[in-house]
Amino acid sequence: MTRRAFTPHGYQRGIIDTIVDSPRCAIWAGMGMGKTVSTLTALDVLSLSEDVFPALVLAPLRVARSTWPEEAAKWLHLSGLNVMPIVGCEAERLAALGQDAQVYTTNYEQLPWLVEHWGERWPYRTVIADEATKLKGFRLRQGTERAKALGRVAHSKVNRFVALTGTPSPNGLQDLWGQAWFVDRGQRLGRTFDAFKQRWFTSHPSGFGITALPHAQAEIQAALADVCTTVDARDWFDLREPIVNNIVVDLPMKARKHYREMEREMFTQLEQHGVEALNAAAKTMKCLQIANGAAYVGEGNTDWEELHDAKLDALASIVEEAAGAPLLVAYHFKSDLARLQRAFRAGRVLDSDPRTIRDWNAGRIPMLFAHPASAGHGLNLQDGGHHLVYFSHWWNLEERLQILERVGPTRQKQAGHDRPVFVHNIIARDTVDELVIERVQTKREVQDILLDAMKRRGDRT
Questions:
Q1: CA distance 293 to 107
Q2: Where is the Helicase ATP-binding domain (predicted)?
């Protein structure tokens, strides 16, 4: 990977300044706003004047394993920063702890193990909680095990703490106390959760749960203002264009072997028969299937073999970060749909039943699976959500744009929704996925892209 020069946007400078100036703080910024590179940049700046390393990043598994290390490897100014994931079985985690690095990353589920492993020798001067809503369940005398484990060291062993999330209160203002405690130990929102409730909440009329008092939101925001930076996409982006978030996944070794074999066969066939517009895309079908995680076998395209879950894991991470926001998920192959339905049971398929669209627009469907060809002109899906995930990729630009338009910026504005549209591309690295995205970005013909890809492969061998 060739490192690139980093020129921060204005909102990223705000994130960097907050982390540098505030030893304990929260950054509330949505997906695609550059929280990761901004945080790493702030740590790099701070390291010139204080001991911020080693730092520990807590994140969902895929993000800990791939996103943070890859982000550090992407930028020129971070070339001196080593990021080591602490993931896998216990032997692999112990081996990772023995490696020399400035930043270590692990998933939240490993917190109890990590805290017990180090005990009084806890070495991490800085802790970054990526997707800090996972700490919302913290309570002084109860709560989730992972939050309690972190609570034992958060204020006694950690000098700097940064909470990162795009959705700090997905289920209401009551989600904020647990997260804020790790920032200030209850100084701003109350020393205990009970004190927090008594000040800003009342019992729900149904008798179940609590509901915020009318003045609660404004007062809570004011209380956290000095330690929290909020980045609203509406203030920085042209809402007439979607915000694109590319999530790159790596194929496991076995799947990569299958892919390489199929790729060689594809290029051989293209060389033998020529690259014609009609058959060029068809020749890539098997490669795209493998990139997605399953490939059809035998005759008739009815049976398929599962090869990996990399894209499903990436989609699970998007679900976590979206924190309850409904997702429209575009797929291409029937095998993709079958696997999506198995992995995300609450999802529904966009079908001919008008109740499906009504339920989606009413917010009753958390994930809607749609084939771009079925999301034709005239469908109105904009009320149901503003996140579109391309799980599968295909060469047909018209179909791709067609499903985007169902929830796109124009329809959001027409419906009176003042919110950005997010497009999440799940892309398998070094596969035909990247060639399809190139076509999306350049509008070049399929056969021209494939010819260039063939030449690049030839130059490497």
A1: 23
A2: 16-186
